[in-house]
Design brief:
With 264 residues, the chain is an alpha/beta fold. 38% of the residues lie in helices and 12% in strands. A hairpin with an 8-residue loop joins strand 2 and strand 3. The longest helix has 15 residues. It comes from Chondromyces crocatus. This is DUF2325 domain-containing protein.
């Protein structure tokens, strides 16, 4: 809301103002250990006080013309003794000026997200600040699970290379269930366990569907099943042979292979 010079004068009628123009505002400010530069319109405190304040900035904050402010100050400066230059500004106007000049409030500190050393460089959760977890505190990313940590690395590699479909050939019911639980919602996964029946047509359709094919050779996997997926040259660039057991081992080897591919 703009404030006119007359409104400023009216707001100060109750104050013992000095209207004797023979003693200028320059003299008043000097007596208060202030400096006023008529050339530049600058009001500044003594060296022991804070930084200068330009008259034009104060006028802008009050919503009035700079000339009106300077004229009003010249006419309405209070008696020097015991007065501060801000003392004759009405409270509501001074409050508005302070709000306009005040620095923006500091943002609240981000909540901390404890992480293990292996997950410290993982992508940051929005609105949190990762910190190294102290002993006895679970990692907010992997919850202390090696398998989950490896699965998250696999998901990140798939995202980086814009691939989404993983076909796993081999493994038992337990590992299949864990893989689905870890990757579901992030990666489309199909699993052909060692006891499943497949023919050439089914295997070729699954090979065409997948972006990556992990052949888990260390698990129960009959040769007649595995060869359906490994003997076709057209899809060999998709194949990753996993010679070790464990969900983490499979995730690590597939991640390493995908990360060798050029990014789109």
């Amino acid at each position: 809301m703009a404030v006119s010079g007359s409104e400023l004068r009216h707001g100060c009628d109750a104050l013992p103002l000095r209207r004797d123009t023979g003693n200028s505002l320059h003299l008043f400010l000097a007596m208060q250990r202030w400096r006023f530069s008529a050339d530049h319109g600058v009001v500044s405190k003594s060296p022991t006080m804070s930084r200068p304040v330009r008259a034009r900035n104060l006028a802008r904050a009050l919503g009035i013309e700079e000339d009106d402010l300077l004229l009003w100050l010249e006419e309405s400066a209070p008696i020097p003794t015991g007065w501060h230059p801000a003392s004759f500004v009405p409270v509501d106007i001074a409050t508005r000026a302070q709000h306009r000049f005040a620095p923006p409030p500091s943002p609240p500190p981000l909540p901390l997200e404890p992480r293990c050393a292996a997950c410290l460089d993982a992508p940051t959760t929005p609105g949190t600040r990762p910190v190294l977890a102290v002993a006895g505190t679970a990692c907010a990313v992997c919850d202390g699970s090696v398998n989950k940590r490896a699965a998250l690395a696999l998901i990140a590699a798939f995202n980086d290379h814009h691939v989404v479909r993983l076909l796993v050939v081999g493994g038992g019911p337990g590992t299949a269930e864990e893989l689905r639980a870890l990757l579901s919602g992030h990666i489309e996964i199909r699993i052909v366990d060692g006891e499943s029946y497949r023919n050439t047509t089914q295997a070729e359709a699954e090979l065409r569907w997948a972006d990556v094919v992990a052949v888990w050779s260390s698990t129960i996997l009959p040769h007649k099943i595995s060869k359906l997926y490994t003997d076709t040259r057209e899809f060999r660039d998709k194949l990753v042979t996993v010679p070790r057991r464990g969900v983490a081992a499979l995730c690590h080897l597939v991640t390493d292979r995908v990360n060798t591919w050029p990014r789109p």
